[in-house]
Amino acid sequence: MDTLVAVFPVVFLVWSMTKKHPLAAHVALPLTALIVALLQEFYFNAELLTLAANAVAGSMAVLTPISIVAGAILLNRVLVLSGAEDVLRQWLESISQNAVAQIMIIGWAFAFMLEGASGFGTPAAIAAPILVGLGFPAMPVALLALVMNSVPVSFGAVGTPAWFGFAALNLSESELLETSQWTALIHLVASLFIPVIALRFLVSWQTIRANLLFVLISALSCTLPYYLLAQVNYEFPSLIGGAIGLCGSIIAAKYRIGLQPEPNKSTLTSPEPLATSAILKALSPFLLLIVILVVTRIQQLGLKGWLNEGSPWLTFGDVQISQALIVTWSSILGTDVSWSYKTLYVPALIPFVLTVLVLVPVLSLSQRHLFQAVEETWQRIKFPILALMGALMMVNFMMQGGDQAPIFIIANTLASTMGANWSYVAALLGALGSFFSGSATVSNLTFGGIQYSIAEQTRLPITLVLALQSVGASMGNMICLNNIIAVSTILGIKNQEGAMIKRTIVPMLVYAAIAAVMGKLILISLI
User: Fold this and answer.
1) Could you give the CA distance from residue 199 to residue 208 in angstroms, rounded to a whole number?
2) Residue 302 gets which letter from DSSP?
3) In angstroms, how far is the first alpha carbon of the chain from the final one?
4) Mean pLDDT throughout 270-284?
5) Are 100 and 462 in contact (CB under 8 A)?
6) Over the stretch 148-158, which tens digit does the pLDDT of each residue have?
7) 210 has which bridge partners?
8) Which of 82, 189, 211, 338 could form a disulfide with 363 if both were Cys (CB 3.0 to 4.6 A apart)?
9) Model-level pTM?
10) Within 13 Å, how many C-alpha atoms sit on residue 304's CB side?
11) Does residue 351 have a cis peptide bond before it, meaning omega lies within 30 degrees of 0?
């Protein structure tokens, strides 16, 4: 009975967001959080004060992901309003007339880098319209964008799904790094297949075969450095891997390495060459973004330590502000629940807002442009704020109660059912989390605790099981309702969500099979 009660909110959430007239995420997630709170209070006899403290902490915790989202969207809107996005489209079009080259450069490598820098739907928001602008049809582009934007997601937004998504588990630095290493290895293998499957939405198998060498060069030029970097860092694999891969893909396309000559059917005349200064100006936001992130994330340069400085500066009761503007609220409502926000280290003010401010004169941004960008950013985040708040409160409620917490009751049941075979299906649980929440980060927040507990119960390596969770959360982006709605809105596609899920679930299941096989092989290697 305890298991049925514990799993009911999860079942309700999935049902409410997939029924004939689904609830929006900003309604379904807070409603589910309320259901969990009521079950905790009246069935599991949870301590009311701790429940209230977890509600407060969950509400405050939304500041971390939503500030990152806001910063990413603000930069995106500035690119559009300044004309930089249009210049990027023209430049990328001029590199190659080969359809496969254009798709891999923009839909794979460029989007890979964007995911690493900002995540939260930014790759589709920027890359998909560029591909449509090149003459590719909207619906297939939307499907390709959803499938392509999977491999880099585990380390998207400067590693947010890793360092924030698993934050509640209190993993050691070595455990988090090992989780990232296994995650990157599984994604590396998947990258040999996923881009090929995604390309089929836009070009024929014959065209793919004729350009297969270029496809593999482009794919591996992103994922090999991505994998290597993940051995020592969990913030930069997608960002740096994508940047290296973008350069590699452009060079390979320019010199026609692995490409079969094929005119672009969408281009009747050759695009006019752009001035180098115009290209550099349009690329300047991304170059500056990467420089700022690298400088503030490499420990040896000193800024990372300063941005994480926790020495007290101001104190107001249980609230403390450090010299690096880290806000900490300890002992919320007199309980052991706490919350903190690293104002300067969370990738929001630095690098996104800082990048926008520095580039105001470079991109010739007017005050009207800035006000419009801020307004459009608010319009896009006001509902996700509610959705993320609901998700974070739900996670806190589900984990309250120690060994009798709903999340651990579910874990015990799953562990006893699947036993040591859990590694075969662990990724599917992560995909389920992304499907209903719209975020790999939220999936890790929601199901990371369950995966951790199952790993302990079945004596499977915790870091491997969490890696499978992370991979699953990434591949779940293919069928995520929020992502599907977002890319459809951007490209003007109406009422095709169901049809799109039916098309993207196949590559997602292929990804799940790869994850299952890799999980088993890694287990064998550890014996």
Assistant:
1) 7
2) S
3) 37
4) 80
5) no
6) 999 999 998 78
7) none
8) 82
9) 0.77
10) 10
11) yes
